[in-house]
Amino acid sequence: MILPIVLYGDPVLQRRAEEVPPNFPDLDALIQNMFDTMYTASGIGLAAPQIGQSWRLFVLDAELADEVVYKGQKRVFINPLILEESGDLWPYAEGCLSVPEIRGDVMRRATIRLRYEDAQRVVHEETLDGMLARIIQHEYDHIEGRLFIDLLNPLRRRLVQKKLQLIRNGKLRPEYKHRPR
Ligand code: CO
To answer: Would 17 be classed as within a structural domain?
Structure first.
């Protein structure tokens, strides 16, 4: 089922999301709906707050970012915790389904150490880097109530203010299904 995506200006995007409790009802259906919603909107990652559900859960498909390096990297992360970030900061022009038509360079560390539960609720610890780490850092920010636009340099931030106002006021709308502003 394709769910409406919440856009910039909705307070759920600024809220720190709650841990997903054990025996969370219909978790498989929620995850499937999140993948359906993400693929239909041509996104490479989607966090639960972006569909208006304030849970510490996100999905991604890194193969859509690099089909050679990340073949089969369709992943689910439940109650993730970034244990450590290391390596050099590197820039990349990020975008977000909740912030349509805006992109901007975000500096992030190259490598992360992550603890998380998979879709079967099995706990893992893993070291990730490159674009896969970046997508996780971006989605992790969502469950912490942060957006990539909060991480732009001050000049870039000023330049996107007008567009942000349009999104907030419901005057800039994406083509994919979204919750009206
Ligand atoms: Co996003």
So the answer is: yes
**70 domain-assigned:** yes
Mean pLDDT of 50-62: 98
Range of the domain at 116: 11-168
Domain count along the chain: 1
* Catalytic residue of the set 101, 139, 144, 175: 139
Distance between Cα 95 and ligand 1 center (Å)? 7
Residue 4 located in a structural domain: no
The CATH number of whichever domain residue 49 belongs to comes to 3.90.45.10
Active site residue 139: yes
Global pTM value:
0.97
Distance 142 CA to ligand 1 centre (A): 7
How confident is the model over 105-155, as pLDDT tens digits? 999 999 999 999 999 999 999 999 999 999 999 999 999 999 999 999 999
Q: What is the mean pLDDT of residues 1-27?
A: 97
Residue 13 burial class via C-beta count within 10 angstroms: exposed 0-12, middle 13-18, buried 19 and up:
buried
Q: Which of 114, 110, 95 is nearest to 56 (CA)?
A: 114
Nearest CA among 169, 15, 42 for reference residue 96: 42
